[in-house]
Amino acid sequence: MSDEIWDPGLQSERTRLAWVRTAVALSSGGLGAMGLSARHGLPPAAIAAFVPAAFCGAVLLLRTGIRFRRVQEALHGGRSVDAGLDALFAWLGTISVAAGALAFVLALA
Known about the structure:
This protein is mostly helical. Helices cover 78% and strands 0% of the residues. It has five helices and no strands. It has helices at residues 11-39, 44-48, 51-62, 64-77, 84-108. α1 packs parallel to α5. The longest helix is centred in the first third of the chain and has 29 residues, at 11-39. The protein starts with 10 loop residues before the first helix and ends with a helix.
């Protein structure tokens, strides 16, 4: 067993794809939920609750290349990887989806 941190496998590529899936789900889900809310005639506050999800997803998608390069450099350099900012955007987007879904359900009830 080797003590090296670097494995020639595709870990960073799989991680990049997972971030892309998260970003696409947040941005397209936020946009789709905004459209669905508007078609059902929900109040603007319920529609606006999904805006941060779409925004956070777009930011995560734009940062994918930067994050991938940093992960590659950290793995090759034996350093730890910090995804704090990206994790914050993912959490904010997820919380926005939950808040929007709650507003959607309460507006239809």
